[in-house]
Design goal:
The complex is a heterodimer.
Chain A (H helix, E strand, L loop, with lengths): L7 E4 L3 H13 L5 E4 L2 H10 L4 E4 L8 H10 L8 E5 L4 H9 L4 E4 L4 H15 L4
Parallel strand pairs in A: 1-2, 1-3, 3-4, 4-5
Chain B lengths: L5 H21 L2 H101 L5 H35 L2 H32 L13 H11 L17 H10 L3
Classes of the chains: A alpha/beta, B mainly alpha.
Chain lengths: 131, 257
């Protein structure tokens, strides 16, 4: 599997942010991107959709991102799915909580295209996915 | 306590009192004792009613106290915080609009230069295609095309990068949206508190029940830390927050991530 074919799921309750992330991913060469507007919608999609990468916000109505992350890690089929948190949540203890819950990266909003690329590359490198 | 009116007195105690007086006059000790006991029971019953009313008043006062302290919190902390949050929203929308316009203003002249260069090459190119171009013009056209090809690559890259930045600048909608949502939540709470105040002032002391949803502190804290606090706002207390991506990275690398 090469990085560019990775199947992404982008979860954010703001459609503007989903569009931004989707466009940035396209710019970086990732064209297989699907969207969901909160954890509750995302989880069944993840369970049935063969997604290979999850980018999720934290603060969402319905199911927040931290709960989605925990649900993913608790699901044997999804436990190894790479998860990048992309959020404005900035409390130190929240970042620690997310790390302990098993996220692979944490990008704080507002962010730059360079930061997003760096974190994605870093996660793919750690997974040993060929560029 | 105010003296009870004669009719109330008669109604409440009249029969018993007369029976008591009759037993007394007749020297009937047993009847006298029985009537006296009955009189005391009537007295006790009205005492219980009074105590019941007092306890209801106390309960209402306690509810009002919890509710009042929430109003104090709203007035002293949450509303000024909300003002600060909205001021921050104003700043963010202002910055995003200017950032977008700066980027567009930076890109427009580049697009215009590309158009102008192509327009100045076009007549020479037409001559060339019609095979009637002068040698001198042909050389000039080649020079212009050389410059054009070099410039277009640089300018188009600048335009592409500006457009990408414009896209990112729209992230303000998410960030300000989260803040506005929290203020809307507060407005809803203030509306409810004011409604309760109106209801209290209409029903007067001790009357009416106050609908106040005061979550227990622990439950509220647990819920908000799970749900998230939204973007930090300068001047509004948020505890220890990171200052940017670098801060996040060093925190995570300290945790071995």
């Amino acid at each position: 599997m090469s990085r560019e074919n990775t199947k992404f799921l982008v979860v954010d309750d703001f459609s503007t942010m989903r569009r931004i992330v989707k466009n940035l991913l396209h710019d970086l060469g990732y064209s297989n991107v699907t969207e969901a507007d909160d954890g509750k919608t995302a989880l069944p999609m993840l369970q049935s959709g063969n997604f290979e990468f999850l980018i999720t916000d934290w603060n969402m109505p319905g199911m927040p991102g931290i709960d989605l992350l925990r649900a993913v890690r608790a699901d044997a089929k999804l436990a190894k799915l790479p998860v990048l948190m992309l959020t404005a949540e900035a409390k130190r203890e929240q970042i620690v909580t997310a790390a302990q819950a098993g996220c692979n990266g944490y990008v704080i909003k507002p962010f730059t295209a360079v930061t997003l690329k760096e974190k994605l590359d870093k996660i793919f490198d750690a997974l040993g996915t060929p560029p | 306590m105010a003296a009870e009116r004669p009719s109330v007195l008669h109604e409440k105690y009249g029969d018993r009192f007369e029976a008591l007086a009759r037993a007394y006059a007749a020297g009937q000790e047993l009847e006298f004792e029985a009537e006296l006991d009955e009189l005391l029971r009537v007295r006790e019953r009205s005492l219980f009613v009074e105590i019941g009313r007092l306890s209801r008043d106390l309960n209402a006062a306690l509810e009002r106290f919890t509710f009042d302290s929430r109003i104090v919190d709203l007035a002293e902390k949450d509303v000024p915080d909300a003002r600060q949050r909205l001021a921050h929203v104003l700043t963010m929308t202002d910055e995003a609009a200017h950032r977008t316009m700066d980027l567009v203003e930076g890109a427009c002249p580049l697009a215009e230069r590309t158009r102008a260069s192509a327009a100045s090459i076009a007549p020479l190119w037409d001559e060339f295609r019609a095979r009637r171009i002068e040698v001198r013009d042909f050389r000039s056209m080649l020079d212009q095309i050389d410059r054009f090809l070099a410039d277009v690559q640089v300018d188009a890259e600048r335009i592409r990068s500006n457009l990408s930045e414009v896209l990112l600048a729209q992230g303000y909608q998410d960030l300000t949206g989260q803040i506005i949502r929290s203020v809307m939540h507060l407005v809803e709470e203030v509306e409810q508190a004011l409604g309760n105040l109106v209801r209290l002032s209409n029903t007067g002391e001790g009357g009416g029940s106050v609908v106040s949803h005061v979550p227990t502190d622990d439950a509220a804290t647990e819920d908000v830390s799970r749900r998230g606090y939204g973007p930090p706002v300068p001047g509004v207390a948020h505890g220890t927050v990171v200052t940017g991506q670098q801060d996040v990275d060093s925190l995570l690398s300290g945790l071995g991530l």
